[in-house]
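Quick start: read one record
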Amino acid sequence: MAVSQRLDLRQTQSLVMTPQLQQAIKLLQLSNIELASYIESELERNPLLEHDEGGESGAPGTEGAGAEPERGETQDGGEAQDGGEIQDGGEAPDTATLTGAETMQGAQDAPLDTDFENDYDTGPGDEWATPQSAFSQSGGARAWDGEDPSVEQRPGEPTTLRQHLLDQLNLDLRDPAERLIGAHLIEMLDDSGYLRGDLQELGETLGCQPAAVEAVLIKLQGFDPTGIFARSLGECLALQLAERDRLDPAMAAMLENLDLIAQRDFAALGKVCGVDNEDLTEMIAEIRALNPKPAHAFDFEPAAPIVPDVLMRPGPGGTWLVELNGETLPRVLVNTHYHAKVSSRLRTKEEREYFSEQYQSANWLVRALHQRATTILKVASEVVRRQDAFFRQGVQHLRPLILRDIAETIEMHESTVSRVTSNKYISTHRGIFELKYFFTPAIAGQDGKTHSAEAVRHRIKALIDAETRDTVLSDDSIVERLHREGVEIARRTVAKYREAMRIPSSVQRRREKASPV
């Protein structure tokens, strides 16, 4: 076979991810908190972008950005209506105007770095005539009438656990070697206040005996909060009980068998501790009153509240009104007035290319934000329309739903719907839900009907909550109940759902209900 060269003309298709398309996809999957952080970084980088300060719509010199689409209205069996108006914000002061000759300070003006703390108006009638007048009232200080609070009214910085322990370390330990060991032990604490690490390795690192490290640890375990520097849950609870003078042999035996409390095997636990049911009940109540994570009183950060992206409320005629939450929508403007002024003063090619690139990037960000808002509203409106029975009658009427169902209706790709529903929340009269919550697989039923997996989990939990001491249901019994209700489900699926809801087995539940504890 001869080898030769030749020219061929071929036509192919390929998808190229442009930077603008990548940015639009990135914005779509960001949560409102992540989006706000991204917008702030773009505002710092692009001189043509600015915040919408809530000016009048249609003001000259700005182009709309971060617009909120029109409210969608859904009804059972009806389509959601949405739109895409752009609301312009007012014009902010222009940089070129602020730096003009008529606005810049002259030599006769006061310098910008004036120390106002040393300037006092000593004119007649001025109540702040002298620096000492602020402390002229009884008590050594006076309350301010303005917005700034006085020194006594200003809240102090919260004390961290590390600083709290270091303060106690400096007061209680005088030996420099013990202080050094104690400082290293403080650094070995985890977020819950437990000591994580090998004491022998710490002794080798510091060049001291493990007994010296153990002696310092015993002293540190007496620090506040009680239970700190424990190496296990049992030791943490023992330290707190010892402070209350309640660490007797029966309580020590209970701490060595905490797994029996978790298994709710109170009969075996009573035999191990050598106490009757009444004493066992009191001992377990004391254990539950203790703090298993003593460090959380200092460094624990409470979970931030969820801010919904979509708001839903009942409308007239049995409809649902779906709209975007204006507080989570970024308000960004393109300052076309500033662009027009600066464009006429550009001289070099590099300057013109840079300014043109920033202008195009700003405009694309505006369109991407508006498209993101419109897409979220479309998906949320369709979800509300399909889950109408859930909002009217409860979780037991939640319908099976997959991404393809929504994607085909709104004529978008499944990946787009997946990005929209991730980390996006909707506020309803039944609570705040993530949009992903409404997408559940289907479980086969009788007569060709299907049931939502979430609705089946809710039914399993309802059956278990209704149990009594003599009617504890096994997994097989739950399967039979569901079969009679038209749900075809296997026993292993019931066990999987039960474990996902952290519900113990029927043996443990029967043991718990039979115990007087």
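DSSP finds 22 helices and ten strands in the chain.
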